[in-house]
Design brief:
The chain is of the alpha/beta class and 144 residues long. It has one domain: P-loop containing nucleotide triphosphate hydrolases (Rossmann fold), CATH 3.40.50.300. The protein contains 4 helices and 6 strands. A 6-stranded mixed beta sheet has the order 2-3-4-1-5-6, with helices on both faces. A hairpin with a 2-residue loop joins β5 and β6. α3 packs parallel to α4. It is globular.
Length: 144
């Protein structure tokens, strides 16, 4: 699994498209177009598959569950995604998530919960990913 993060509108999507030579929308599932969090992706028959908008999927979880349950569901997804990736040689899963953990701490409890859960979830995915890149202003930095 390859986790890509960075600021909003900092070139993550373009970098991934270029890096992985994405040819088809069939290779892409995005929370930005209201696709729900994919708990299981076993039916996907691609060698490269991109999940985009992790922070929005995490926000949806925080609207329905407490922090512990959100993290439990997220880690269940990560395990399912890793199973898909390992099922066939040369499969690569890329997960893109905007970094919302910097800056001023939100005043509203629900936004603080979203920020906290996102930070913990990103730690979990970074730990389980083979590779982690940060994209700022279109420039990538490999941190794992």
């Amino acid at each position: 699994m390859h986790f890509i993060t960075g600021g909003a509108f900092n070139g993550k999507r373009a970098w991934v498209k270029n890096r992985y030579k994405v040819q088809s929308d069939d290779q892409w599932l995005s929370a930005y177009v209201n696709n729900p969090l994919p708990l299981i992706i076993m039916e996907i028959d691609q060698d490269v598959f991109i999940l985009e908008g992790a922070e929005l999927w995490l926000r949806a979880l925080t609207e329905n569950y407490d922090a512990d349950k959100c993290r439990e569901i997220w880690n269940e997804c990560l395990e399912n995604w890793l199973t898909w990736e390992k099922e066939r040689q040369n499969r690569q899963l890329i997960v893109i998530g905007t970094d919302i953990t910097k800056g001023i701490v939100p005043m509203e409890a629900e936004n603080r919960l979203w920020r906290d859960v996102t930070g913990w979830a990103y730690q979990d995915i970074a730990a389980k990913s083979e590779k982690v890149d940060v994209i700022w202003y279109g420039v990538h930095q490999t941190i794992k």
